[in-house]
Structures are given as C-alpha cells and as structure tokens.
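This week, study the protein below.
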Amino acid sequence: MKIILNQDVVHLGEEGDVVEVKDGYARNYLLPTKAAVVYNKANAAMFKSRAAAIEKRKAEKRAASASLKEKLDGVVLEITVPAGESGKLFGSVTSSMVQTELQKLGFEIERKKIEVATHAIKMTGTYTVVIHLYENDLSHIKLIVLSEAEKLAAEKAKAEAEAKAQAEAEAAAAEEAAAAESAETASEEPAAEAEQTEAAEEN
C-alpha cells in the first residue's frame, strides 16, 4: 500500500515521505495510530501545502539531533548484573536496560532507536551501543557490563586506594607541620641568644 507518513517512523521514513508498505502494517498500525495517511491526490495536495512547515520542523530536528549526539558521544554506561565466574550472565543486557540507564542520566531515547551488539549481551565486558538519532545521525556510547562480584571488587579497590591516598596526604601534612615547627624553633634560638648577649653587655 502506498502511504504518506504523518510523522517520523523509525526505519521507515520521515514526515511527508511517500512510501510503500505491506497492507497489514498500514491497516493495523500506521493508519489507526495516525502515523500515516493513504496516498491519494487529496492527501498529496494537503502535504504539498504543508511542505514549508515540514521542512522547518526537519531543520529543528537536525539541530536538536546534532546537540544530542554531542552529549551522548561522551557517555559511558555501567550496568551490573549477576554472572558466573566465567563472565557469562544469568540473563542478558538488552536495549530496554540501556534505555533505563540513559533515562537515569536524563536522556529520553526510544527503545527501538537503541542498537545493542548482537541484540542482547550475554557476557561481561566492554561494548559499543549505537543510538539512532535523526536521519543518518548515529551516536556511539560505551557500555561496561560488570558482574556483581567484579563491581564489589572494583568498589573495594577504589575504597582502599582512597584510604591510602588519604593516609599519605595526612602523613605529608604532619611532616610539613613538623618541619615548619622545627624551622620556627631554629629561628627563635639565635634571637634568644642575641637578647642574652645584649643584656650581658648592658650589665
């Protein structure tokens, strides 16, 4: 069936595009949800009259997409899941889980725009997730999948490193204070000797 898209549809086209789709897809989803209208002379003329407004919206979407891509490209997600000693997950990491983690960071991304490697990650490790933005814009974000044991080990190592750094900083501060006190005492001794000499000369 030939239709005109009334809005952007992922993997199909953008608002105003004329596309051919299967009859069932059009009748069961696109037409009832008003995502598209049947292609005919009347509807084609209507969209032609809206061409300038549609192009303006496209320009705004391109700008928003470029801004979002800039923010997303620096994102590193970390997901902790139960896993065996070999690193095999008890389950898998899906696009829905990635979507939830992005929401926590303030990014509202449709699940169908999130492309997870092999569709579902089943091992711990570092992966690249592709986010489909507007038109051909893609963002690649880093995804680190950890087992709960790895997470605990990493947190323990971090806590130990912080404690060590704190102890070293305190030791350095104490050493600096002792050195300052020693220098102050050393500078006071000549002054005291000078006062004693001056008093003896007066007598």
